Amino acid sequence: MLLRILLLFFSLQLCCSIDSITPQNPLKDGDVLLSKGGKFTLGFFSPGNSTRKYLGIWFTKVSVQTVVWVANRDKPISGPQGVFSIGVDGNLQVSSGKAVAWSTNISALIPPNDVNSTSGQILDSGNFVLASNNGKTMHWQSFDYLTDTFLPEMKIGLSKRTGLNRYLTSWRALDDPSPGNYSFRVDPNGSPQFFLYQGSDPVWRSGPWIGSRWSGVPEMTRAFIFNYSFVSNPDEISVTYTILNDSVISIFLVDGFTGTVKRRTWQESAKRWVEFWSAPKELCDQYGECGAYGSCNPNSGNQSECACFPGYRPKSPRDWYLRDGSEGCVKEDNVSMCRSGEGFLKLPSVKLPDTSKAVVNTSMTVKECAEACLRNCSCMAYTSADDSRGGSGCIALYGELIDTRLYPGGGQDVYFRADAVALAKYQKSKVALKNKRLEVILIVLAVLTFIIFVSTTAFWVHKKKKREWEEKRQRSIWIKDADDSDSDSELPFFTRNEISAATDNFSFANKLGEGGFGSVYKGRLRSGQEIAVKKLAQNSGQGVQEFKNEVRLIAKLQHRNLVRMLGCCIQGEEKMLIYEFMPNKSLDTFIFSKPIFISKNKLSVPRNCFLVLLTKEEKKASLDWKKRFDVILGIARGMLYLHQDSRLRIIHRDLKAGNVLLDKDMVPKIADFGMARIFGGEEVQANTTRVVGTYGYMAPEYALEGLISMKSDVFSFGVLLLEIITGRKNSGFYPDNPSINLVGHVWDLWKEGRALELVDPALNNDVDSEGEILTSIQVGLLCVQERADDRPAMSAVLFMLSNKVEIPSPSQPAFIHKGGHRDVDPSSSSTGAYSVNEMSVSATMVQGR
Ligand SMILES: *[C@@H]1O[C@H](CO)[C@@H](O)[C@H](O)[C@H]1NC(C)=O
Ligand SMILES: *[C@@H]1O[C@H](CO)[C@@H](O)[C@H](O)[C@H]1NC(C)=O
Ligand SMILES: *[C@@H]1O[C@H](CO)[C@@H](O)[C@H](O)[C@H]1NC(C)=O
Ligand SMILES: *[C@@H]1O[C@H](CO)[C@@H](O)[C@H](O)[C@H]1NC(C)=O
Ligand SMILES: *[C@@H]1O[C@H](CO)[C@@H](O)[C@H](O)[C@H]1NC(C)=O
Ligand SMILES: *[C@@H]1O[C@H](CO)[C@@H](O)[C@H](O)[C@H]1NC(C)=O
Ligand SMILES: *[C@@H]1O[C@H](CO)[C@@H](O)[C@H](O)[C@H]1NC(C)=O
Ligand SMILES: *[C@@H]1O[C@H](CO)[C@@H](O)[C@H](O)[C@H]1NC(C)=O
Ligand SMILES: *[C@@H]1O[C@H](CO)[C@@H](O)[C@H](O)[C@H]1NC(C)=O
Ligand SMILES: *[C@@H]1O[C@H](CO)[C@@H](O)[C@H](O)[C@H]1NC(C)=O
């Protein structure tokens, strides 16, 4: 009986999963080959509405037929008589009757005696291999002749030994796989780069490989899902990748329809491909958008995104004015290159200019690189060849510097050659280089010091001006303090009189809020710009430290989702920070209805409470799910920038709804860095004796042991995420279960599969978004897990939120009971929206043991 079942099983196996063809057993139209693990299928297919037949390979398990390779791309067969076979000379061929539509061309390589033992096999990688000697001698593989799809384990690039160039070409149309106009191939010159071409015109450039990513793909992070490896040696230039999790199905392809390269991942639950990444995305990605010596800034406040390098001006001002920057820029002054006194100016955070004329030396240090570049008059710029570990190696750029663009927070610094005139003009960012003129500089410095000394003394004598002088001194102190490396972080300094005038002498009418560290006022500068002024309380013991911290930090941070500081003001003990004004105030005014049950006179409901609730509910309803989701993504991006993408590692320590401001377009901006901590490069966790933050948002290891890490911010983010979805405060009071907080509540319902019941009623049962809402709740629960190690990093959070991937199940969250730590009435000190740490508390930990 057992034997019979076994026999049946094997015969079934045999009948249903043939994975190879032999000279004796060709493949006919209608039959297919199935790879051993069942991942790929090879057979005849007709794309779209076409009736023509092609031989191709497609994913077996993807329900939308996705062809990754085609043999007879431009020679289709028109009837059902197609045959895929191994010919008498050992070559693979696709034929119909007598007519051969396609064949390989390797006849010289297969000895006639071996022909009968050759076989062609489809592998689980999607590769079709023709081999003889029981698979020992390989003659041909489909991975060497790519069509439009780049699969894991494939290589694209140039084999310098054999001359074989593997590259992708788009399909001509959805129902026509013949080669289209777009191709993606390596440019081996200089420092190798990949280009997307339309015909022979470059459309987009990946930039060179700079250690762990392409210079033009800043969103590529450390091996997380995809592990790319790039090889450039005398034998070959190639790139390949693997997918770290076998259950993820993903392809990289050239899409001729949109003229882009893109990566897609298959989402089984929705039965569709989801776009993971694509390029070019914006104008600045277009090759040479701003021409030579022009740099493209997608977020420039200007109407035109092009700007010339410092010391350069538009070559054709008229075209430039008409927003065509492709002519590029020329030098501003008429000093020819290669004179004494030359040096370098820095272009911060950019995609490297075209490196096809670059010279790479990986054994040089960056300093040697600068010196070598300065010595050779035709060297136009330099940068490090490996950006991943603080910078090493040397890329020296020759020829015109073209296709440079800015990546706020994500690019690489490039130093370009500038003459003495330009250096003097843009001296602030001049790169210090040892040179013979040290004496001259010393003399200049001595003279300057003398002048400063004399003038300060003179000021001092004039008692009338003492006050102004005091301000200037303070200013120089903080600038020195705050600005240890960059000059671009310099901020305008406002006098107290200016601020006083702007806020109508800090009138009560302009007051936006008040909290432990001071008050916030609305103001309008004489220029008309609206500002928010945070005036720190003079007697707050933490003021000085927090102030310096905040100034130092924010001066360096620039991100769409972080609030922008416009300047500051110090006068004596009084310190003020000036921010851009956010008309929509903070997020908590949108998502929470007035917590009537925890108002000061406890459970007494004000008589007009119904009215109050109504208007609040209207405000809540104005934030529909789509807007809320955008807000969540925005906050996540801002946090990711703080944790990972800015050059510093910053732990915010006080993320909460009150510290997220909304601009007029409802773009969220994280505010209040008074408590942030900067971490050193490799430091991931620290111990603090001063625990600051807001109850309800504090991670357990932080609240109880003073341990801070990025994961403690992730915890706060999780709480905030759940608050945004439910429209309730974590520390709020729930009549149905008073001993438990929001997180506990969500967890309880989640376990029972009823989490949707807690969704803010103001979202009006948005049925279409239920999937997204559930995903977000699940991510929120992952973020508030008890063990810090279990919580995902912000990069993973953002990935899970913005891609439809499978998400792990959360374990029990921390602090679900209100008794978990001391309870503080959060509404007691709040007067309104524009928060100033209004609910933040601070406690000194007693260092145990
Ligand atoms: C196939 O034909 C149908 C009906 O004419 C059309 O709606 C559809 O877009 C076509 N599909 C392709 C891939 O061209
Ligand atoms: C096959 O290869 C030979 C030499 O490699 C070349 O001369 C010939 O044109 C090729 N034939 C086809 C059909 O590509
Ligand atoms: C290969 O097989 C065919 C058919 O089975 C046979 O006629 C031929 O002689 C064989 N060739 C060699 C070299 O064994
Ligand atoms: C390819 O480019 C040519 C010439 O630029 C154009 O005529 C043709 O329509 C393009 N084909 C496709 C499929 O876009
Ligand atoms: C990524 O690939 C490289 C080289 O193929 C390998 O050494 C490394 O271990 C891989 N990384 C991961 C996380 O699998
Ligand atoms: C805006 O354009 C002007 C004139 O073209 C230029 O001087 C300025 O630097 C530009 N600002 C930015 C932020 O690009
Ligand atoms: C630069 O200087 C040269 C001679 O010194 C002069 O002929 C030329 O016109 C100048 N160019 C510009 C743009 O000023
Ligand atoms: C790279 O730089 C090192 C150190 O300066 C030098 O010895 C070596 O010759 C350089 N290599 C090339 C290929 O230029
Ligand atoms: C400058 O560098 C280029 C490219 O490496 C080289 O061809 C040229 O000879 C160098 N010139 C000098 C003066 O060293
Ligand atoms: C791969 O992903 C699946 C679902 O997303 C997950 O269950 C599995 O643990 C992952 N495997 C690895 C090795 O990460």
Summarize this structure as a short list of keywords or feature phrases.
849 residues, Agglutinin, subunit A, 27% strand, disordered C terminus, binds 2-acetamido-2-deoxy-beta-D-glucopyranose, transferase
Summed up, the helix count is: 16
Number of strands: 47
Output the radius of gyration: 32 Å
Number of structural units classed as domains: 5
CATH architecture of the largest domain: Orthogonal Bundle
- CATH topology description of the largest domain: Transferase(Phosphotransferase), domain 1
Termini separation (Å)? 70 Å
Strand order of the largest sheet: 26-25-33-29-34-31-32-30
Largest β sheet strand count, sense and barrel closure: 8 strands, mixed
Approximate shape:
globular
CATH superfamily of the largest domain: Transferase(Phosphotransferase) domain 1
Bound molecules: 2-acetamido-2-deoxy-beta-D-glucopyranose
**Helix content, binned percent:** 10-25%
Looking at how many chains there are and whether they match, the oligomeric state comes to single chain
Q: Low-confidence parts lasting 5 or more residues at pLDDT below 50?
A: 11-15, 429-434, 473-489, 594-615, 819-849
Keywords: ATP-binding, Cell membrane, Disulfide bond, EGF-like domain, Glycoprotein, Kinase, Lectin, Membrane, Nucleotide-binding, Receptor, Serine/threonine-protein kinase, Signal, Transferase, Transmembrane, Transmembrane helix
Pfam families: B_lectin, PAN_2, PK_Tyr_Ser-Thr, S_locus_glycop
Membrane topology: Single-pass type I membrane protein
Domain Protein kinase: 506-815
